[in-house]
Write a structure and sequence with these properties.
This protein is of the alpha+beta class and about 160 residues long. Helix content is about 40%, strand content about 35%. The protein is elongated and about 95 Å long.
Length: about 160
C-alpha cells in the first residue's frame, strides 16, 4: 500500500521547489526593472534641478543679457563650457553624452494684478519676472516619460 508513496512525495516536493524558484526569479526581474526605472527618474530630476540652477546662475550673472530677451514659449537649452566654467542658454539643442535624456527649458511672461499678485490672465506684464519651466524627457519601455519643474525668477539684483 505504501508503494509509490515516496514517488508522489518527490513529485509534490519538486513542484513546490519549482514554483518557489520561479516566483523568486520573477520577483528578482521585477525588482531589477523597478530599480532601473527609479534610477532614470532620479537622474531626470537631477537634470531638471540642474536646469533651474543654471537659469538662476544666468539670472544672477546678468538678467538683461541672459533672461530679459528670451521669447515666451520658445524651447531653450543650457550648456556648460568647462573651459570658461560658465553656463549659457541658447536655442540650439545640446545633446547629452548618452543621448538618453532631452532637457528643454521654456520661459513665460508673468502678469500681475493691481495687488502685485501673479495672475494667469489679465493684469499687467511684469518685465522683471519670468516663469521658467524645465522639462526632461526620455524613452522608457515604449513610452516617453517626462519630469517637469517650474519656478519664478525675478531680477532681484537689478542687473
Amino acid at each position: 500500500m505504501n508503494k509509490g508513496f515516496g514517488l508522489v512525495e518527490v513529485v509534490i516536493a519538486s513542484a513546490i521547489i519549482s514554483v518557489s524558484v520561479f516566483s523568486l526569479s520573477a520577483v528578482s526581474v521585477i525588482g531589477s526593472r523597478l530599480e532601473s526605472q527609479s534610477l532614470e527618474k532620479i537622474r531626470a530630476n537631477f537634470l531638471a534641478e540642474e536646469g533651474l540652477e543654471a537659469m538662476r546662475f544666468l539670472r544672477d550673472k546678468s538678467w538683461n543679457t541672459n533672461l530679459a530677451n528670451l521669447s515666451s514659449g520658445t524651447n531653450y537649452y543650457v550648456s556648460f563650457a568647462s573651459s570658461t566654467s560658465q553656463w549659457s542658454v541658447g536655442s540650439t539643442d545640446v545633446p547629452y553624452a548618452d543621448s538618453f535624456f532631452d532637457r528643454k527649458i521654456t520661459v513665460e511672461n508673468v502678469f500681475r494684478d493691481s495687488n502685485d499678485n501673479i495672475v494667469l490672465s489679465g493684469g499687467a506684464q511684469d518685465p522683471d519676472t519670468k516663469k521658467v519651466t524645465v522639462v526632461v524627457l526620455w524613452q522608457d519601455r515604449n513610452a516617453t516619460t517626462t519630469i517637469n519643474l517650474s519656478t519664478y525668477l525675478s531680477d532681484v539684483f537689478d542687473n
